[in-house]
# Entry
Amino acid sequence: MAKFTQDMIIGDVVRDNPELVDTFVANGMHCIGCPSAQMESIGDACMVHGLNTNTLLDALNKPEA
# Structure
């Protein structure tokens, strides 16, 4: 799996990796279906929603158990 970065577009990540929806939601990113998510980067969305970008990226990049 590719390493996820803060400049990746949420809509692209979810479209290519639908199994990560739960990870986004569990980390406070509840706007997965929002039209903005189709053009907004992970980093920008974290900033807007007051989330720690590194915490979310660590969760998204965590190897599956």
Q: What stands out?
A: The helical segments are 10-16, 21-26, 42-49, 53-61. The chain has four helices and no strands. The chain has one domain: 10-61. The longest helix spans residues 53-61.
